[in-house]
């Protein structure tokens, strides 16, 4: 038996060992425009910028709850990185302090900072809560749920910092996949539930190709788990936009095209 034949047989045995039925859950959540665009163009970024300028015009000292990101709202803003930083913040006039929340960051992180500021400075003026971008919070929730519900998570593309933080401490193995050829048999050993997450910079169609490859390893049931963003303006407040993370109505099964819709 030559070396090439031995190598082929080893590969066959390696993949045969992970042949089994599986549940595959594909997780998708829209990223904030700040995270995916060099020139963000959305109502939330406009609201963030408008509120900051308005507060400055009122004579308020304005702080950003969290890293300001690559697109600062206005000149002269101070960034408060975390609650510990907020506890140390020194201001010129405690009666004139305002806080804004940068899009692209989880809202709950900013609210934790704002809570510390309000405890120290009761006159704190916050950005209107219905102008806050919820996209990063929704994605954090989705990523955490996907990790909790599966034995392993395959990320189509790359892990950005926020997704990496959401997955940290879950205990679920996570592997990035740039092409289906990169999937390794040992990643799937003993895994009856596999999560597939749309990562950063993934080539078009990579998520579907990963799902197809998993289907070649035995019978699979494929589900889609997504978080929707719903916009709503209350009567008389057309200048405000409310986006809320809408929990999925249940994990939805992908139905093969050849199946009867009934």
Structure, explained:
The protein is an alpha/beta fold. It folds into 2 domains: 18-35 and 134-253, 4-hydroxy-3-methylbut-2-enyl diphosphate reductase, catalytic domain (Cobalt-precorrin-4 Transmethylase, domain 1); 43-129, 4-hydroxy-3-methylbut-2-enyl diphosphate reductase, catalytic domain (Cobalt-precorrin-4 Transmethylase, domain 1, 3-Layer(aba) Sandwich), CATH 3.40.1010. The protein contains 8 helices and 11 strands. It has helices at 3-16, 33-36, 43-57, 83-88, 107-120, 135-149, 161-167, 206-215; strands at 22-29, 61-65, 78-80, 97-100, 125-126, 152-156, 174-177, 193-198, 220-232, 242-246, 252-253. Strands 1, 6, 7, 8, 9, 10 and 11 form a 7-stranded mixed sheet that branches. A 4-stranded parallel sheet has the order 3-2-4-5. Helix 7 links the parallel strand 6 (152-156) and strand 7 (174-177). Helix 6 (135-149) packs across helix 7 (161-167). The protein is elongated. The chain starts with a helix and ends in a 9-residue tail after the last strand.
Please trace the helix and strand order, writing H or E for each element: HEHHEEHEHEHEHEEHEEE
CATH superfamily of the largest domain: 4-hydroxy-3-methylbut-2-enyl diphosphate reductase, catalytic domain
Structural class: alpha/beta
Average pLDDT works out at 82
Q: Helical proportion?
A: 25-40%
Overall tally of domains: 2
Instruction: Give the termini distance in whole angstroms.
Output: 53 Å
CATH topology of the largest domain: Cobalt-precorrin-4 Transmethylase, domain 1
Radius of gyration: 23 Å
| Largest sheet, strands/sense/barrel | 7 strands, mixed
């Amino acid at each position: 038996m030559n070396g090439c034949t031995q190598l082929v047989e080893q590969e066959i045995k390696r993949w045969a060992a992970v042949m089994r039925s599986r549940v595959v859950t594909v997780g998708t959540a829209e990223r904030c425009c700040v995270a995916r665009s060099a020139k963000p163009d959305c109502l939330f970024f406009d609201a963030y910028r408008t509120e900051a300028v308005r507060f400055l015009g009122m004579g308020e000292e304005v702080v950003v709850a969290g890293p300001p990101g690559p697109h600062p709202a206005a000149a002269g803003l101070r960034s408060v990185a975390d609650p510990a930083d907020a506890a140390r913040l020194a201001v010129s006039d405690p009666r004139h302090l305002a806080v804004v929340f940068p899009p692209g960051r989880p809202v709950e992180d900013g609210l934790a900072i704002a809570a510390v500021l309000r405890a120290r400075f009761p006159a704190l003026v916050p950005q209107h809560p219905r102008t806050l971008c919820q996209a990063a919070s929704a994605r954090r929730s989705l990523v955490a749920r996907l990790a909790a519900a599966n034995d392993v998570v395959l990320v189509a593309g790359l892990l950005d910092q926020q997704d990496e933080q959401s997955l940290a401490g879950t205990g679920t193995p996570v592997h990035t996949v740039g092409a289906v050829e990169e999937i390794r048999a040992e990643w799937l050993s003993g895994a009856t539930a596999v999560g597939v997450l749309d990562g950063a910079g993934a080539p078009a169609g990579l998520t579907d190709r990963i799902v197809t490859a998993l289907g070649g390893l035995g019978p699979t049931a494929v589900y889609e788990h997504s978080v929707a963003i719903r916009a709503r303006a209350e009567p008389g407040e057309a200048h405000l936009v409310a986006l809320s993370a809408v929990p999925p109505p249940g994990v939805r099964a992908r139905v093969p095209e050849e199946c009867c819709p009934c």
